[in-house]
Amino acid sequence: MNLLEREEDRRFADEVRAFVSAHLPAALAHKVGTEQYLDKPDVQVWQAALAERGWLAYTWPEAYGGPGWTPRQQFIFDAVCTEMDCPPLNPMGLRMVAPVIQRYGTPWQKERFLEPIRQSTEWWCQGYSEPNAGSDLASLATRAERRGDRYVVNGQKIWTSYAHWADWMFCLVRTDREAKAQRGISFLLIDMRSPGIEVRPIVQLDGVHNFNQVFFTDVEVPVAQLVGEENQGWTCAKYLLSHERLETASLSACQRTMRRLKQVAFASREGGGPTPADEPLFLGRLVDADVRLTALELRVLDFLGRQDHGQPLGAEVSELKIRGTELYQYTLELLMHACGESSLAYHRDFVLGQAEQPSAGSDDAATAATRYFNRRCMSILGGSNEIQRNVVAKAALGLY
Amino acid sequence: MSAVWADDAQSMFADSVERFVTQTYTFEHRQQRLRTGDPDRRDWRQMAEMGWLGLPFPEEVGGFGGSWQDVALLMRRFGRGLVVEPYLPGVVLSGGLIASLGQGAQHQRYLPPLIDGSLQLALAHETGTLRACPDGGGLGLHGHAAMVWGGATAEAFVVAARLTGDLGVETDDIAIVVVERDSPGLAVTGFPTVDGHQAASIRLTDVRVPADRVLTRDGAAALAWTRDVGAAMVCAEGIGVMEVLFEDTLAYLKERRQFGKPLASHQALQHRLVDMHALWREADGMAAMAVQALDATGSRDDVSARAMAVSSAKVHVAGALRQLGQEAVQLHGAIGVTDEFRISHYFKRATSLSLQYGDADHHRRRCGELLKRRHTKTTSP
C-alpha cells in the first residue's frame, strides 16, 4: 500500500504506534485480535486512554477540540490501530451525532453534549430503524407531539446497537403526520434514563447481544433537545450520511481478517501435516481475497487523494461499502474454512469475551464460525448493499 | 479515471493517440481493414510516423525513451480503439529484448527498421516446446510454438528456447535469438485470431542460428521480465476495452425501450451495471499498479515485488474482463452476439487479453507461491 510513501506520514504512523504500545493492554489487544465480543468496559479502557491524549475525537475539526489531522492522517491512525488490534471505537457519539450537533446544534446543545462525547464520559445510540421502516427509513412512525415546552414521544425503534450501553439516543421522530414522509421528520436527542423508555435485547445468531428494541411510552423530551428546525430532521440525517464515506469500506476489518487468515493458512501444524495453504484450491481462493483487498485499498487511496485535494467524492463511493463488506464476509468465510470442522464447536463464553481461552482448540477456530455468522449483518446494515446499488445507479450512473 | 493515470493529459503521445483512435481508426475503419487486409501496412506506417514504434526504446538506440506508463497509456487507447496492430508482441516485447540484450550490430540491423515501420517482429517464447543446442559457435533450434502473436506478417522472430546440452539433456538456461523468416528449417503458418489480430504457428527443424543472431544464452531473467511486461500491458489494454464495454452498455440501457420504458428502469439491470462499474474502477487501479511496478523495478532485482504486483493485477483484471465482457453482451440482448455491432468485438478482445501472458489461474498460482514464500518461516536444519 502506498499509504506511507512520505517521510512525514511514516513519522506520524510511528507516533501512533508508540502511543498504542504504551497504552493498549496486551490482554485487550488479544481479545480484539481473536474476535471475541468486547463489552463496554473493554472499549472504555481504550477510549479513555485516547481521550486523555486528545485523540479520541480525531475526526473532529480543531475548533471543536479535534487534533487537527488531515484526512490522510486520520486514515493512517485508523490503519495503525487496526494493525495493532485496538478495539474499534464506538461511532455513535463520536462520528455520528457529534458532526450533526456541530453543524446544526444550538449553543446550549454544543456545550452540553460535545465535551462528554470527546471525553468518553457519555455514550450514545442511534434511534433510526423501526420494524416497518428499515431500508424505507422515511416511512418511520415513532411520533413526537409538541406539548408546550416538550415533545411527547411514542413508538419504537429496532436494531438499536448499544442501546443497553447508552446514556443518550439521537432519534428520528415524526412531528408532522400530514406531511410527505421525509418532510415531517425531526431529529431529537433523548435521555435514555427518561421515564417511559424500555430497552429489550435482541440476540444475534452467534449469541452476541448488540442490537436492541427500544420502546417509547409517553417519553417527555424538552424542546431544547430538538436539533435543527422541526420537520427538518431528514436534512440532519442526510448530513450524517455524507460523512465518513471512506469508512464504510470496512477496510480495517478486511485487513485485520486477512492478516489472521494468512497466519492460519501458512502456519505449520504441530506434529507436521499439511497447512491449509498446501491445498492449492484453497490457496487460490486466498489469493483471490488478497487481490480483492489490494484492489479495495487502491480505490480507497484514490478517494483519499481526492479528499486531500478537497474534491467531492461522488456517489460512486458507495461502491466501497458494497465491495468492502462483501470482501470482509468472504475473508471471514475463508478463515472459517482454514480452521476447518473444529470451528463448529460453540465456545460461547470465549465468543462473548467471558473466558480467557476456549475449552479446546485454537482461539482462531473458536470464533471463526460465529464471527462469519455475525458479520452477515454487514451487507445489510448501514444501508443494505441493494440500496447502495440503487444509490450508485441513480446518483452516479444516472440510470433513473 | 484513477489518479495514477493522472499524467495522461501531459503525455506527449496522448493527444495524437486519442485522435488516431477516435478519428482515423474508427470501428468502421477497423472492420474494413479486417475485410480487405492491410497489405501496404498503411496503419502500421502511420503509427511509425507518429513515433509510437520508437516509444518503448531508449534514446541511445534510436527510440523516444518513453516510460512504461507512457506505453501503457498507448495500450489503453489501443484497447479503446480495438487496434489490431501487433504493437505489444512485435514492438514492445520483441524489440525490447533486442534493445536490452543485443549488441551494436544487432541493434543496427533490427531497431531502426522496427522503429520506422519497415520491419515487423514477433516473439515465440513457448519454452516448453522450443529447444536450442550448441552448434559450432552458434545454436541449433528445434521445436515448435503454437501461438506466435503477430507471426503471420513478421519478417523476423525473437525466439526464446530452452538450452539443452550436447546429449539433449535440458538445462535451466534460456537462449534468446533472432531467426529471420527465410531461415532454412523455419516453417511459418499464419492465421487470423478470433479478436481480429493475427498470429502464426511456427515449426523449427534444425534451424542454424549464427553467433551474431544470439542475443543471450542466459535469458531466464530477461524472459521473466518480458512476460511481466506483457501481462502488465494486456492489463492496460484491457482497461481501455472495459471502458467501452461499460460505457456502451450504460448508454444502451438508457436508450433501449421495451414494455414502454427504458431498460435502465429495471432494478435488476441497474444493479448489474453498478457491479460492472465497481469492478472496472478497481481493475483500473490494479492495472496502474502493475505498470508502476515496471517503472519502479529499475534495477530489475526486486523480482518478487514486481511479480506480485503484476500477477495480482492480472488475476483481478482477467476476472473483470470476463465479467464485463459477458455482462455487456448479455445486457445488449441479441445484438450483443452479432458481428455488425461493436460490443461483441470488445467482448472477444477482452476474452483474448485475459488468456494472454498467463491466464488468471497461472497468476493465481504465482501469487500463491509468492505468499507462501513470504509467510512460511524456514527452519534451519
Structure characterization notes:
The complex is a heterodimer of chains A (400) and B (381). Chain A has 400 residues and is of the alpha+beta class. Chain A has helices spanning 7-23, 26-33, 40-53, 71-83, 91-104, 107-118, 233-242, 251-266, 280-308, 318-339, 348-351, 363-374, 385-396; strands spanning 124-127, 143-147, 150-157, 168-174, 185-191, 197-203, 209-222, 226-227. In chain A, the strands form two sheets. Chain A has a four-stranded mixed beta sheet with strand order 1-4-5-8. In chain A, strand 2 and strand 3 (150-157) form a beta hairpin. In chain A, helix 9 (280-308) runs antiparallel to helix 10 (318-339) and helix 10 runs antiparallel to helix 12. Chain A starts with 6 loop residues before the first helix and ends with a helix. Chain B has eleven helices and ten strands. Chain B is 51% helix and 18% strand. Chain B has helices spanning 14-24, 27-36, 42-49, 68-81, 87-101, 104-116, 220-255, 267-296, 303-331, 343-355, 360-375, and strands at residues 121-124, 130-135, 138-149, 156-164, 170-180, 186-192, 198-209, 214-216, 257-258, 261-262. The longest helix of chain B has 36 residues, at 220-255. Chain B is α+β, with helices and mostly antiparallel strands and 381 residues long. In chain B, strands 1, 2, 3, 4, 5, 6, 7 and 8 form an eight-stranded mixed beta sheet that branches. The chains are: A alpha+beta (400), B alpha+beta (381). Chains A and B meet through helix 8, helix 9, helix 10 and helix 13 of A and helix 7, helix 8, helix 9 and helix 11 of B.
